[in-house]
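Researcher: Can you fold this with zinc ion in place?
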Amino acid sequence: MHQVPVSGKLFSWYTQTKLIQLIPSMPELPEVETVKRGLLGVLPGRIIATVSVDTPKVFHYPTEATRKYLIGAKIIGVERRAKQLIIGLDTGYSLVIHLKMTGQLVYRGSERFGAGHPSASLVGNLPDRSTRVIVVFKDKTKLFFNDQRKFGWIKLVDSNLLTDKGLFEKLGPEPLESSFTSEDLRHCLLRRPKSTIKAVLLDQSIIAGVGNIYADESLWAARIHPATKVALLSAYKIKSLHRELRNILLIAIEKGGSTDRNYVDALGRKGSYLSFARVFRREGQPCLRCNNKIVKIRVAGRGTHICPHCQKLLS
Ligand SMILES: [Zn+2]
């Protein structure tokens, strides 16, 4: 590992213990929001002493910029944009992180917090074989970025570029912003009128952060068949979709995201949204509205769960 050491005085921190949280391998908005909230509880105020990187592909940075804007920087906030985490620094730069399929962020101090791809590394001894980046703070606590498959990444970016005209130019609006109205949703969706509503919901440049689980859930709740062409949706239906999508994302955040059924339940609480899911992965079970059987079909190249009775295909 390449290391840039810097000395400094110890920094005090809270002593509260954070529980381990698990999320599925394909994080969507609620899962990343859960990570953000966990990190927000442990990172702000900490000062970065050293950063070690074992895979330049994961965190490639010019040494000069790192020395100037990263080492010695104090963390001033943690935010989320779509599925990306933003750790703000007092140097005017930010660490932008994408966990992708198998990324994890694990904080170890007197408190512990770990979230991301649910593997034993969340709770085991670190660093281990999946560790790509280690951030050591002046108080000797550590933040590990683990990523078995190395698709995830960390970038050191000028915070002024973290705007919808800069780095986030290709991202659609955040569906949970209070300013995001059903008229905004309609406007976004109509950029792809000939596509199926499911494909458009999954398109991150149309709306940010929605993936397979929450697309299926919100379409079921709004009684829309996922293969319906956007142009055929009434304003009323879009209003209903807007309401249901936001409700479902908020419930999922409240539940700590959705832990996939195949993953280990390690030390603490895991995301529990899937146990509340009303259609996702419920094929063969009765629809909670009409009692007809949920079926699994394929839309937009993805396994898609619907109630064929409640979600009629318009044509
Ligand atoms: Zn039904």
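Model: Folded with zinc ion in place. DSSP finds six helices and twelve strands in the chain.
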